[in-house]
Amino acid sequence: MDQFEMLKAWAETNVETTMFYILATLAIPLAYGVILDKTIIRSGFILIGVFGSICGLFLLLQAQFLALAQLMIYAVGITLVIVIALMLTNPRMEKSQLSNATPANQLGAFMVAVGLFMTIYLSVRPENWTLSSEPLDVNNVEVLGRALTTDYSLPFEFASVLLLAALIGSIMLAKAEKPPKPGEDDYEYSVVEDGPISDDARHDREPAASKR
Amino acid sequence: MTSSTATNTQTPAQAMSYTLAYAIAVFFVVSAYATGNLDNFVQMVGLAPVLESWALKDYTELLAFILIVLLGSTVALLGGTTSIIMAVGTVGSFFALTLNQHPLIQYLTLAAVLFSIGLYGMVVSRNAVRVLMSIELMLNAVNINLVAFARYVDPVQVKGQLFAIFVITVAAAEAAVGLAIVLSIYRNTSTVDMERFNLLKW
Amino acid sequence: MRNGAEILKLGTLTLVWWCIIFGAVWAACYIVGILIPMALSSYESDAARMTAETCRALTPILSVLVFIPINAMFMVLFERRGLAIFTVRLGPNRVGPDGYLQTAADAVKLLFKEDITPRGADAFMFTLAPIVFFAPSIFGAMPLLAAVTNYHELFQIVNLPTGIFFILAASSVPVVGIVMGGWASNNKYSLVGGLRSAAQAISYEIPLVLSLVTVCLMAGTLDVVQIAKQQAGGILNWNIFGGGALRGLDTALALKFSNQPPALQELSQKSFDQVLKSSYVEPTMQAIGLGAGQEGLAGIIAAFAVVILIGSILIAYGLYMTGACAEINRIPFDLPEAESELVSGYNTEYSGIKFAIFFLAEFTNLFIVASIAAVMFLGGGDCPVPAWLGTMLGGPVIESMINQALTPLIQIKLVDPPTLFAAIWVILKVYGIVFFAVLIRGTLPRFRIDQLMDFGWKRLIPLSLIVFVLVVFAREFVNVHVGS
């Protein structure tokens, strides 16, 4: 009996940490895969993995609604649009179409990135956070919905205006103005690309609306 | 690809063995830190007063971090596979920097790591779409921060989650417009190379 | 009826396969969820307790894992026989008794086929694609399982406060698998199929989600178990008929027709009007701020609002079915795998077990989409006969007779009557919708890609937004499920 209770107590305290480290070890190499993989379309798919593990982190943080929105909007919506854009701008599926940055530039960028990370870490670490020990309500969708429609209704409306503008703007930008030259056959794709791009913007509205 | 010129003379097997050795070394450093052996080592060698004089007494994890970075750059110069070394080193130093911390600091550190990776990718990439992907990565790192704050600092009103919703919204709009711009530029110039997007150069 | 005999055969086949499917699931759940923990409860050790707990916790996922392959086999056979009836053919009728085992033989064949990875394909992504396509459907089925089993304790643990949103998120992931498989196959047709699928799925997800959001607006919650619970008590309470707008009518009718002594008939006649008034006229008067003496106007407005609500939800149901058809790539939206244009699209290059997984997932998705419709619109495990009518027709008597007949089984917990009845209704509803999908497949031709996009963006999305706005306004005047 004691052992069982002990096991349970251990699980309650440590499962979260263990899961966190598993997801973190998944997310970091995948993030490197996104920026370093030679086949760029594959790095688009790897991005889905990063977003998936971040969705897992949100679930650990008991933000169910955000985790699912993350999965639906980022991992499926945005990333698919990115993958389609990659396929459209890289029609011959070349392995490495582009030249890489020079080693000196790479080193400089790396130093800047490490410096930024150290700055953040060293400012975060000794800070005395005013932590709250109150438990987070698992069903916090209602809190979110209430806040969005009362205190934050103005930003919410602005967000919808922004999305509408983005929708119209992206359709206008991506629309082919003139009929294609012979040999250039990306006209037939323009039907496809209008849909998903503008759609994403739309995508964001339903989660917000569903919270009423 | 790699920053060292020595790579060209290395066979893949040698590069792989260097990388593997590095991974094992990182594992040992992290486990030494986690079990407290690194502290003992610092005491034994006599580094403790030095650290104390720099007001870094409680910061043994920084020592582990520096160790991992130094090892990594050495192996990279010797001719390991740079990308794997970077990934392994990042995971190792992430472990070393967060193992004994409060969960909030763990999440913030992870977010910082992802943000820095996104920044590095944004600067290094030539493909415009990959730059956009790196930006998405950075926005997600910010989201992790916000949600972690909502969980540990403000669990009643969960304002962090609210802001994360707005960040997701803006990110969706940004991705849509950004990709549309990339597509229209591609239609005109038949390239997505950032180096050649210099139409407004002068 | 020229082919009445064939229809009869399809009916028997369906019954036999239902017995096989649900018998297997039932047996698995019973053994793992109840029998093993009961056997272990006599031991006092920690290991025994832990094993029992684990078994109970694993029951829902086990039941889904047992259910999916057998169900897919049945659905393929059902679809082929159904299509054969619509086109006046015989359909598969050689393997086993009258073709009952045709798909089992097909499954065996698929498992033993050589698993080929085409040259130039991205092998890792090529293998990952079927998994990404299939895995979400298991997760998506979980909250639905909790909703349709009528609060059985074993399945309650998989319920989530964000149930329907979780299901939607899970069901939006498979398209990633399609695009991934299409790209990794290194084949033009597959790639075009994958791209079409992405464009189509993302576009048609909007009307689908908006129609479900409309239902959630009526229910005031995202929890599928709650939504199913609110609709209990007969067809008038179901979401498809106004999302609780007819609840007042239901109560009034119940009062009127309940078996009361004749002396009280007069009273019930009076209370009929009163109930109608309190549930329709008064909320409307409150909403607009009408004073006393304007009941007539309020009644007209309330009736109008109820009609609008019912009409909107019926349209929302149609939108949901259309969007769902597109989401799971069925005819008339099967452009990603159009056999005659793309030689079956994204899964051209797949063979063997990977193809089997694609196939399995397709039919599982159809089943899940049908169960979402059953839970969100058609009342979940609820009997369509209104409760008062059931009482008049002698429902409780029949129920107690069944209960008595099953007493020994109930005692050993093999049968849980509420769950059993709920399960029977859910099965009837879900396979009814599946049959409807087969009927559509036998009837409609395929869209062209530009027609598809036009239809989605210029017709369905505006329509779903209009329905949403209508419902937002109309529900202010009527008591719906919210808060009840």
Taking all residues together, what is the mean pLDDT of chain A?
Answer: 76
Largest interface, with Cβ-Cβ < 8 Å?
A: A-B, 98 and 87 residues
What is the CA-CA span between the terminal residues of chain A? 46 Å
In terms of quaternary structure, the protein is heterotrimer
Shape of chain A: extended
Specify the biggest β-sheet of chain B: none
In terms of structural class, how would the helical and strand content of chain B be classed? mainly alpha
Shape of chain B: flat
Q: State Rg of chain B.
A: 21 Å
**Strand elements of chain A, count:** 0
* Total of helices of chain B: 8
Our estimate of the beta-strand percent of chain A is under 5%
Q: Which ranges of chain B are low-confidence, i.e. pLDDT below 50, for 5 or more consecutive residues? A: 1-7
First-last Cα distance of chain B: 31 Å
- Pattern of helices and strands of chain B: HHHHHHHH
Number of helices of chain A: 8
Mean pLDDT of chain B: 80
Number of strands of chain B: 0
Q: Care to describe what's here?
A:
The complex is a heterotrimer of chains A (212), B (202) and C (484). Chain A has eight helices and no strands. Chain A is mostly helical and 212 residues long. Chain A has helices at 2-36, 40-60, 64-89, 103-124, 141-149, 153-174, 187-203, 205-209. Among the domains of chain A are: 7-95; 138-176. The termini of chain A are far apart. Chain A is 74% helix and 0% strand. Residues 187-212 of chain A have low confidence and may be disordered. Helix content of chain B is 76%, strand content 0%. Chain B is built from eight helices and no strands. Chain B is flat. Chain B starts with 11 loop residues before the first helix and ends in a 13-residue tail after the last helix. The relative contact order of chain B is 0.09. Residues 1-7 of chain B have low confidence and may be disordered. Chain C has 484 residues and is mainly α. Chain C folds into two domains: 1-112, no CATH class; 118-257 and 280-483, no CATH class. In chain C, 73% of the residues lie in helices and 0% in strands. Chain C has helices at 4-40, 46-86, 102-112, 123-148, 153-156, 163-172, 174-184, 188-219, 224-230, 247-257, 265-288, 295-327, 339-342, 352-376, 387-392, 395-405, 407-411, 417-443, 449-474. At the A-B interface, α1, α2, α3, α4 and α5 of A face α5, α6, α7 and α8 of B.
